[in-house]
Amino acid sequence: MIQFKIVKYRLDKSWDNFVLQHSRGNAFQTNLMFDLYHQANDFSPYYCLAINTQNKRIIAGFLFVIQKTPYPIIGKWLKRSLIIGGPLLPQKGSKIFSGLMKTYTSFVKRRAIYSEIRNIHNWSYFTDEFRECGFKYEPHLNYFVPLKNDELEPKLSKSKIRQVKKGFERGAVIIDNPTIEQVKDFYQILRNLYNKRIKKPLPSWSFFKAFYEFHVKENVGKYLLVSYHNKIIGGIMLPLYNGKTVYEWYVAGNDKEFKKLYPSVLATWTGLHFAKENKYSSFDFMGAGFPNIPYGVREFKSKFGGQLVNYGRFRKIHYKSIYYLAQLFLSFRKKK
């Protein structure tokens, strides 16, 4: 017999062992990621599990998180549920997947206006199963850089190699073990970027502080910051997974004020360089926008030698009227 259930508390090592042994295990499905979300103000983490009732072993599951937006008054109503890098299924797991998603949807449909599964693997063979559970596939691109047995520089465009060289020559330096105060300076650069250009919700400082306190201190996460004359001008936030993959979660640079130092280029290059030097096999850029829609971020990431993939995302809307009103609100905010 298989039991499907939602778990609201941190699991024991059996979950981390399950993730590590799974071929699609990743940094976003670990107990430490649960700790990060639990500590941050904007998130409520949960697990959805399939358990063998005879031996009590986990046979499938995923970590998911309900996120509220930071907008005053309406923020508590605009909640979404995110599954990053999941679910983790056994081979021929269609029936188990169906049971998981029924349990998940029953729980989350009154707590979030929509659910989004952000794929970091190819699910093209499983699209029908997602559709049967009410999830619609949306194309979404990403860049993925293989690092094994390859030199880093030949992967970069000539312009990026030149900008990295000039940035360092002109006095920029990398801080690979920053203080929490320096990380907060990086967060302020991120906030300015999201408020003025990206116009999308950014997690509160508590999220980035928790990453420092949990992931960085456990050596499964890294902040690498760009400094000039003791001033933080850029940086990158990197979850690390099991000696295999480095993920670019957040990156930003004060490119307007320090244009000739190329802080965003240096931050991205430093992340790649860290992954290569520490013998990780791949670097994941964590998203490059929708196909056929111009996107400056994708153009920027394309210069770092990655392979363009389209693993897409799956989305399920739980409250259509609120969802479309929220989309209108966000669209209006971008135009301001």
Topology, element by element:
Blueprint: E1 2-7, H1 13-21, H2 31-39, E2 43-52, E3 58-68, E4 79-84, H3 94-108, E5 114-118, H4 127-132, E6 136-138, E7 142-146, H5 158-169, E8 173-175, H6 180-198, H7 205-216, E9 221-228, E10 231-241, E11 245-247, E12 250-253, H8 263-277, E13 282-284, H9 296-301, E14 307-309, E15 313-317, H10 320-335
Parallel strand pairs: 4-5, 11-13
Antiparallel strand pairs: 1-2, 2-3, 3-4, 5-15, 6-15, 7-13, 7-14, 8-9, 9-10, 10-11, 10-12
Helix pairs in contact: 2-7, 5-8, 6-7
Structure, explained:
By secondary structure, the protein is of the alpha+beta class. The protein folds into two domains: 164 residues, Gcn5-related N-acetyltransferase (GNAT) (Aminopeptidase); 167 residues, 3-Layer(aba) Sandwich (Aminopeptidase), CATH 3.40.630.30. Helix content is 35%, strand content 26%. It is built from ten helices and 15 strands. Strands 7, 8, 9, 10, 11, 12, 13 and 14 form an eight-stranded mixed β-sheet that branches. A hairpin with a 5-residue loop joins strand 2 and strand 3. Helix 2 runs antiparallel to helix 7, helix 5 crosses helix 8 and helix 6 packs across helix 7. The radius of gyration is 20 Å and the shape is globular.
